[in-house]
Amino acid sequence: MRKIYIIIFVLLSFAFAEDHSIAVLDFSGEEIHADELKSLSAQFRIELLKMDTLRVLDYDDMKSILEVSGYDSPSCNTMTCSVISSMLLDQEWMVAAHIAKIGEVYVIEAHLFNSENGRVLNVVTYDHELSIEGLRTRGMHNVAELLM
Known about the structure:
Layout (H helix, E strand, L loop, with lengths): L1 H14 L4 E5 L3 E3 L3 H17 L3 E3 L2 H10 L10 H11 L3 E10 L2 E10 L5 E9 L3 H16 L1
Parallel strand pairs: 1-3, 1-4, 2-4
Antiparallel strand pairs: 4-5, 5-6
């Protein structure tokens, strides 16, 4: 009987789960080409979409909104810029990340912000010792899971 209650509770929690809206800024970085950073942020958006509980803001829509507000690109190098961008985009949450290549290791620091008040909800760091392709295929999945 207890198992039936647990199953019903789990099914009801899925039925009434609320999707959250989220935007992902282009990643900033050191020792990594700008095209690779843009590709990694695009892959990160895909990983968030796979979670099926998030409404991810389209990249072109995000870029247009920020351009109208006076930003040249959907990338930020400071926390202040990230918080202001998150408020302009009118999404519930915002993700900003910085990737640095130190020797043969890629180090990612990702922040999840609440767009309403600019509060940081979660910060994760992730190290990846393989290639940039491995970071794209496996690393972005891991960072998305750790952050959410």
